[in-house]
Task: structure prediction
Amino acid sequence: MKLNPYDTQVATAFKASREVPRAGLEEWRAAIERHLRPLPGMTLVDIGAGTGAYAAAFADWFGIDVIAVEPSAAMRSHIPSAIPAHDGDACALPLPDDSADAAWLSLVLHHVLDLERAAQEIRRVLRPGAPVLIRQGFPGRLEGVELVRWFPETARVANSYATIDEMCGAFATAGFRREALEPVRETRPGTATDLLGELDALREADTTLRALTEEEFERGKARIKETGAGEPRDNWL
Result:
């Protein structure tokens, strides 16, 4: 299946519909702080930074230096100017050896065609002992994903992504080891019925929704209309 091109139209839709409001990321902030243990002067590289929502959040939350790496010029154009943003991807990072204290990848791994190569490249850029933090939906762990709840057919695409074991195996070849695995909740204001107003932009920006047939898409909207009132906008990854 062809992934999104992340051109100007998709980047604009992504910015409007897929960025989680900062207020809905408090549980991510706490989880990241536990595992990152941020210190003044630390440099984190945000790989596949998209429109820069997490890069900006890390800089604001922890007062650390953040470098964004994003292959789409259209997506990079939305990254706040205070964040250095570079063209590149997980397999070709435009950074020197041993130059970063941590790496962050948010919903990126399914775009990476060679996980072992990416792991080796991330290892090159990170200083010894630096952590890699990953936010990702994995096969077998999709039950808390908001879109999968209302549009269960989206799991067809997500279940084709690398499993946790496959991802950990690839990173192990570069000397990394898994230290923690935990679900983290993010929230949006309103209820599930508010999702209806976002679906056109969201479908433009989300690969799993774009893969649905019109019938599947309409069935999902009907589910939301029937039972979404009062349902919270929780998403677990």
Remarks:
- The chain has a mean pLDDT of 96.
- DSSP finds eleven helices and seven strands in the chain.
- The radius of gyration is 18 Å.
